[in-house]
């Protein structure tokens, strides 16, 4: 008999937004040995490389250079300099005990693997089935070796050697001299490791291990056992593989958790506990108490104590200066710790309150600067600047016993405090505690709804997430595309095909002044920057004419075609401002002319192309215009010093389909100043798929410089002279554009190409010279020579990003050095993570048959420009017009791609303009013959995979629910306050002897208590309409909007139900309340508010609530109770006993319960007789985080997210043999997502009736989607997944299939089911070169078109927001 759950046992999971919380950070010289180092940030499975660039007029900013998606979460991250290398390597550890050593490959502009190490051996586990200790990784300060903690029972030593001598994969080598090896910690008497580090000042690498004695303790056993932590110093002999113990110290506080090594002198390390800091060394000891609880250690007597208590629990510290640490504590406060020492030991510790920041998960300082980076998982990460100044807030100890050694040599005793200012921040959507979906009500969405009112389309939705913590708490409103705000009615222009916007307000007499002001180099001051005039003309090209509109009219667009001297009898190919905006160039089908304002520029005569016909054109904004003609030729037009036209024609056998102009530049030191030089380049795309780059001289002539073969086939790296892939009919480049990513003088350059199959290619430029790099390795970076000409390229020039200047108005330099700079140009493809191309049903394949070749030869490609650069509200990028409009935002020097998801019509043209009548910056575009005037919302952030709007709350947001009938959000928040115990002692009476008066007692350790409240928020404006404060020490555990039956209504009515827990202390039983609210609207004022209808205390916390066919089901632990509501009281109807239920989901009369200890339970509700009937359960232990139903037609799956970061799908299949007579839920699918899931949200699939998808948020700040798929599609995707895993290189050498295999953390091993396709790996198929796509598709018996079409459908079906 066929398995009833067969069709529902296959799913597809894709990460919509990668993790955003920062776990680890480190500084390293990855790309160059000199200058400022790079900042490497690990966001769980996302590795990012930032540069601390000094932007003109903006100060230091973090610019994203590279982004790598890993198939595994980073557990530890370090930097090291291998022997013989001039740049640093990254040493990264992954679960359970894997290490990857990576370095930057300058030829590919990518990370390459130096070596891989795997220590996952059963003998190291010592019989344990689950190991919770992370693989901590540390690197020796002298770069001699690295150490890895393996399963808390052993340490692996990785000696560093010449990277060319590394084996590609090293699993187990114990005999070689430089091979890695492991040693057991049991032989050293070391157990329960807390932390370890390398010490400074030793001849051989020496590890200091912080661990706890075998007899552990905790807060409840302190009277019986305390001070159980120890430190053991172990010397590492990498030749003899010996590990002698050098020295040890015991009786450290039991809650020590972190070691911070000190430079030599004095050496040693600081051991941080929750209440004190202890300095440990072989011959000296010192301790500083941070509060009253830190003065109980007798072996390490605390000589000093701070006047104001500080709790160091979960604190992070890093050295920001010699002898100066920056400490971040969990209440967001920052402290500067100044360590005073002599040549042998620490003599004192001073603590300075530096300011406020975030609760940091990692800290690192940028050497050579005063910058410090604070990475956080509970809010935005900050880049701080430390300004030294005099400060009276030094928290000096109350008393200090000054020793003789301190009087002799006391260093850093009077360090100057500093002031902290935030110079930049990295936005975060972490952690996602709860999510809700509701109808969008912002200005942009309302304007879109008004435009689409007649089309009766579905409402736009927002995904609202509770993120942040404390004062950094906020709501995040997420959308998966750009939603422009329509500011004017649509206008119909018959036959319109393209549009441009130009400025006519600049005076023509200012040309000479403007031209002379554009000198080589950066502006001397802000007054020297030329401010562009307002855009006021809209040029529209139709099939046979040109129309000109003015945007300065208060009533909208006004036709001024007859008032201008534009050529109106022919369609325009290009209209743009040149000469810094002082002139307008119009290129039409048969010629070109210059205009000054509305009139023809008298100093220049029109240029005719007869008998050629222009098809497309590009300009560099200065005096160069590139024109493509219908016969496949191209011309480079320039305006000479005498305002005459000069033309340089280029003809070749391979027709030219698209062109663009751009510049590259470099700094060159001169005796007078640091000079900026640039080279003008002309890029031409040929029909064969080749991209040619030519240099342009001052006279307007060009010469061939570079040639990139198979450009249109999507090569990963474009290098001059590289081997080309062959294809019979390659895609044709329809449009080409080079754009810089910012407004600064130096910013990365991106090459964008639009193909005739609607595919979009984006490349990032960089420089690499093979001869220079090889010679630099051999001679230590000495500048080599090429062709008898010395090339002045230092280490910074070996591998760097291609810089482009904001304007091309300066004098061009064409020296041999610049030509060499242009010849080293390469491009690397950028993964947009958006599927743009839609190959239809996937049955067509270009280059497959001779018929396709014949059609390709007969096809006439129209070269209408569809790539347009924009600059709106501080955002810059490129807009891609077409069947699926796409926004390419240049955020922090990187590309973020967002679809214009609301626009279903084909966008034919786009341009930026000043929106009438206000004159603010906006844009216009054509869609289905309608001209639409819009603006980009300024409240959205475009730095992540989804645009986000941050709503600051200044408190922690825990739960959120959407009330659809009232169109309001209900939010549960909490704010912390210090609880004061006892009364403040009265002041001493007058005349009291102060000498005999005992000193006042220090203030106690602050105790924080959270106060919860409910808020009623209006979407769009996000104003708080009402708020209700709960009882003291009452915690909101769950919040839902449920529909309950009431006697006064025929249909179930919506109510807000809150489940709480009242926790006082360990001697009081935890209780809870169920509170029912209704939203009332004042008939007179229209104000909406919350009204409490019911509240009752229960014997247990209320952890989950849901509605059940008009009834309320609640988890009043340890029971699950079904209530009926009569409008005033909740009446119990039935109950079911469990241990601790954390999640309840219902579909009709089916109930899914998720227990934190007892896995899943599946029940059925019968209203007749009020019965809760258990149907089946999962017998194996499982720690459930969240649950939901998976709906696919008539099939119903049970989904659970567990503590091991797995997703598991079960079925109720009583006819199956595996169900044990129907009593056990049958597992059908499982997979590892790598993140803890906080909440599932079930939504109907687009275009699939009675089929639902699940959107879920993670505690790492990510958003993912899961949807059911058919068995046939799964088998195709899984076969492709296996081939991609085996044949493609993966960053850090990680195995995607091994990552997605479900993991069992308990003693009972579960058999992995699989059946969940990895969307992260499969969606990279669209970025592969076409030859690789074809090879992989043929190996699985299909075509690339079929795979791309399937991935596109899966991607579109979950586009809810």
Number of helices in the DSSP assignment:
12
Strand % is 35-45%
Which runs of at least 5 residues are low in confidence (pLDDT < 50)?
1-7, 166-177, 390-394, 396-416, 506-533, 777-814, 844-863
How many strand elements? Answer: 94
Instruction: Give me the secondary-structure category.
Output: mainly beta
State mean pLDDT (0 to 100 scale): 83
Biggest β-sheet, characterized?
Answer: 7 strands, antiparallel
The proportion of residues forming helix, as a percent range, comes to under 10%
Radius of gyration: 34 Å
What characteristic shape results from the CA principal axes? globular
N-to-C CA distance: 41 Å
Characterize the structure shown:
It contains twelve helices and 94 strands. It is mainly beta and 1361 residues long.
